[in-house]
Amino acid sequence: MKAMIMLVRREFWEHRALWIAPLITAMVLLLGATISPGSGVQVRINAGDVQINDSKVDADSAMQWLSAMTPERQQKITVAVIGGLFVAQLLVMLVLLVFYLADALYGERKDRSILFWRSLPVSDTATVASKLATALIAVPVLVLCYSLLTGAIAVPILEWKFSDTPFEPLLNWQFGLWLKTSALIALDMLVAILWYAPLAAFLLLVSAWAKRNVFVWVFVPVLVLIVAEKWTFDTDHVADFLGHRFTGFLTALGASQKVAVSGGSADKAVGTVIDSMDRFDASGLLGSAELWLGVAIAAALAFLTVRVRRYRDDT
User: What ranges in 134-209 are assigned the alpha helix state H?
Assistant: First the structure.
């Protein structure tokens, strides 16, 4: 266990962006909460109307809706803000890990540091396991902590900014609600780890195998398959499968739901935004055979990666 912890620490030493990028993202989100009227919902007050994102609603209707704010709707707005901050951190993490995994095993062969690590009593299995543990455990836990801390700071800031304004009823910071939302977000992060595990293992396998241009080997074969299927069978099964694998978790989370506001009702305008953001619960995927099949495939790919690293020595 101590050896694995040291190997994971090594990854953070060699790839400092793994902790710096999420930290910068958290700071930017907090700055946005400080200088903007809200997180994810842009509100502008003009003569006679209120503009929410790109939709205008009647000012009187907006004030009536705010004056009739219920505790349930207030909690939904608070959860939506905390959850929106989590989704922003999650998207940054996914992009960051794509670059990390693509370089994780290729980089050590490129700079010949693999010779040093092989001179130590560190097996190929431990090395591959440490890189997967970094991508699927250490970084997600770090991002989760950043996200929850950001929510704990941003919501009181927004509540303070809305005080003594017509928008004061929008938010109500409660530690119990934050704790409940945090537990739900932690569960969602676990689901995300399991859902994206096969993609992480695939990237690591390509990183172990490719002699150069890792991203070419990641994307070009996939594009060739998609184009070949389209030309040969006029179908899009490969593209649909990959698209679902990339966005399926976000769809289950509710974060990818499009917000379409029509009419001049403040209740419709704000309610549509809130309802698209307040159900941050992807736990339903835990009962999906697709998720667990992906985990099994990830384990197989990880085993194959160990074998490839053992014999893929450019020296």
Answer: 139-162, 175-209
